[in-house]
């Protein structure tokens, strides 16, 4: 059974006389262990799709199932982990505490010590030396790597990552992609909104968004 399944998802934003169809009858299913890259121009609806899938936005139409239920808002970090485009680190917590936050709130993967998993991730992302810094004391790329480590620390059933390599050089981007693919190897379903063509090439499947519509394959 797919980890996330959506049919006919639509979302319009209306402000005064202006209306934008951000999602237009989107059908999507992602299986456990599958890496799906979501590509498309700025404003095409990628972040809106992720926001609907995680429950931040309510769709106007369509059906949604994430894990066992239809309301993703009740899910914990081991079921659904997010790397928001704006990262969403907790400013009052150190980078180390941000990365460990899901482990404090949620259920670690069987047989895995989340503190050890966090150490491996931050080592691999070259941010171990920044453990005690607060987010505002780290570069944007470093903050983004902490946000990805936080999302991966519990090996979630579903990872929704919004341009997770946007603030990285190639080497750090590749380290992030390695870790995301490793999580997929252990069963995580991954949906990755990304402008990074290396990420597309490493995904199992590429989907394109254009004006709120989701189409199979990379953009033509
Ligand atoms: N809260 C909102 N109110 C009104 N319009 C919105 C809102 N959020 C997004 N939109 C509009 O919906 C469309 C899709 O936006 P979205 O953020 O999903 O695009 P995106 O593909 O993620 O773009 P980018 O690559 O720049 O991140 C855009 O036209 C955007 O202006
Ligand atoms: Mg976006």
From TrEMBL:
SUPFAM superfamilies recorded: P-loop containing nucleoside triphosphate hydrolases
MF (Gene Ontology): ATP binding
Pfam family, one: ABC_tran
SMART domains: AAA (SM00382)
Sequence intervals crossing the membrane: none
Keywords assigned by UniProt, alphabetized: ATP-binding, Nucleotide-binding
Start and end residues of each ABC transporter domain: 4-220
Family matches, as InterPro entries: AAA+_ATPase, ABC_transporter-like_ATP-bd, ABC_transpr_LolD-like, P-loop_NTPase
PANTHER family reported in the protein's UniProt record: ABC TRANSPORTER RELATED, IMPORT ATP-BINDING PROTEIN
Name of the featured protein: ATP-binding cassette domain-containing protein
Origin species: Klenkia sesuvii
């Amino acid at each position: 059974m797919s980890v996330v399944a959506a049919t006919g998802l639509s979302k319009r934003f209306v402000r005064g006389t202006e209306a934008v169809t951000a999602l237009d009858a989107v059908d999507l299913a992602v299986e456990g262990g599958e890496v799906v890259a979501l590509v498309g121009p700025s404003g095409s609806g990628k972040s809106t799709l992720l926001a609907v899938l995680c429950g931040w936005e309510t769709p106007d139409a369509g059906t949604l199932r994430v894990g066992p239920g239809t309301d993703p808002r009740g899910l914990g970090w081991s079921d659904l982990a997010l790397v928001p485009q704006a990262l969403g680190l907790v400013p009052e917590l150190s980078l180390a505490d941000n990365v460990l936050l899901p482990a404090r709130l949620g259920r670690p993967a069987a047989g895995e010590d989340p503190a050890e998993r966090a150490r491996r991730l931050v080592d691999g992302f070259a941010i171990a030396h920044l453990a005690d810094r607060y987010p505002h004391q780290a570069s944007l790329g470093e903050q983004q790597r902490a946000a990805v480590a936080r999302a991966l620390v519990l090996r979630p059933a579903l990872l929704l990552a919004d341009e997770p390599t946007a603030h990285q050089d190639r080497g750090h981007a590749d380290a992030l992609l390695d870790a995301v693919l490793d999580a997929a190897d252990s069963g995580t379903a991954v949906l990755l909104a990304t402008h990074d063509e290396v990420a597309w090439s490493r995904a199992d499947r590429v989907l394109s968004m254009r004006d709120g519509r989701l189409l199979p394959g990379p953009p033509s």
